[in-house]
Specification:
9 helices; 15 strands; three-stranded parallel sheet
Length: 311
């Protein structure tokens, strides 16, 4: 078969599903390429993957016998506990490929690995689709070697690795990451509420340029947890950060309260704006100030930043 792949969101971040479909089809001898609308000819099947609902859909005609669409940007469909790609003719292909080595050549990726060790999250936050998509329980899905074959960097996509219900598995995963010698990027952040002495000691063995945590809900007092993280890890704002969700059930005063506290314990905040198109201008200014570390650590407070910005 001749297979075409369309990354609807673009190429700023590689689409893991497409890399796994590519690997699967190449394994059985199919020809796989990124879909070419003008000179690619006719395809037996084209896969379209869309992660973000705000991404504009692919607007060009598609020359293929089968068109298979999927991803959270279109809809979430679960069959037997697994996300599926759906075709117009009620055709589905289970996306059960966590243990398949991605086809990194599809994006020309040479020294970075992408994958999940666990799926699911028990937090079930209203702004997040993970619990709906993957379940309210963090479960093991793959070993590190299923998607890493010696690359210098590993981008881990797990939504809540530390919440894995199998403690022994989670500890094994952290040890595997440390033993890899690769630079680890916990892209979705770690749950600061789940830190204990054993986990902190394991994290200190892992090579990473920055460890991300999150403080999404201002109604939750996480001060003690962050203080424990800073004390245990021994890192400063150059190596420990916290995603701060804004524009979702919080006021700017509540956002600033979290930001100022994180600053006071030497943690780098990183402002995330929920539904940015509805956010007030002041919140976007807040994001510019906080997310520019050189400015943030030189300008003591938000009011001073706003005054400087007006000059």
């Amino acid at each position: 078969m001749k297979i075409g792949l369309i990354d609807v969101d673009g190429h700023h971040f590689p689409n893991l599903s497409l890399m796994k479909f590519s690997a699967k089809h190449r394994e059985i001898g199919d020809t796989v390429e990124m879909y070419e609308p003008l000179f690619g000819g006719w395809y037996d099947r084209v896969y379209m993957s869309k992660v973000f609902s705000f991404s504009e859909d692919y607007s060009f005609p598609i020359n293929a016998d089968d068109l298979v669409k999927g991803g959270t940007g279109y809809q979430i469909d679960i069959v037997d506990g697994k996300e599926v790609f759906l075709q117009e003719k009620n055709y589905s292909v289970p996306l059960d490929y966590d243990t398949i080595m991605p086809d990194y050549d599809l994006y020309g990726i040479k020294d970075t690995a992408y994958g999940f060790l666990t799926r699911g999250c028990p937090r079930n936050c209203g702004f997040c689709i993970v619990s709906q998509k993957e379940g309210c329980k963090s479960i093991p899905v793959a070993n590190l070697r299923d998607f890493w074959n010696g690359q210098k960097e590993i981008k881990l996509l797990d939504p809540n690795l530390l919440a894995c219900h199998d403690r022994q598995w989670m500890v094994k995963c952290l040890n595997d990451l440390a033993d890899s010698g690769a630079s680890i990027d916990f892209t979705q952040g770690l749950d600061v509420r789940l830190l204990d002495d054993e986990i902190i000691d394991l994290l200190k063995k892992i090579r990473t340029t920055m460890i991300h945590f999150a403080w999404d809900n201002p109604k939750q007092n996480l001060r003690d947890h962050f203080e424990k993280a800073v004390k245990g890890l021994g890192y400063d704002h150059h190596k420990i950060s916290a995603y701060v969700l804004t524009n979702y059930n919080s006021t700017i005063a509540e956002d600033l309260e979290r930001i100022y506290f994180l600053r006071s314990i030497n943690v780098q905040p990183y402002v995330m704006i929920y539904q940015k198109d509805t956010a007030p201008k002041k919140l976007k200014k807040l994001q510019r100030w906080v997310n520019s570390p050189r400015i943030f650590w030189c300008v003591d407070n938000f009011d001073d930043y706003q005054k400087e910005e007006k000059k």
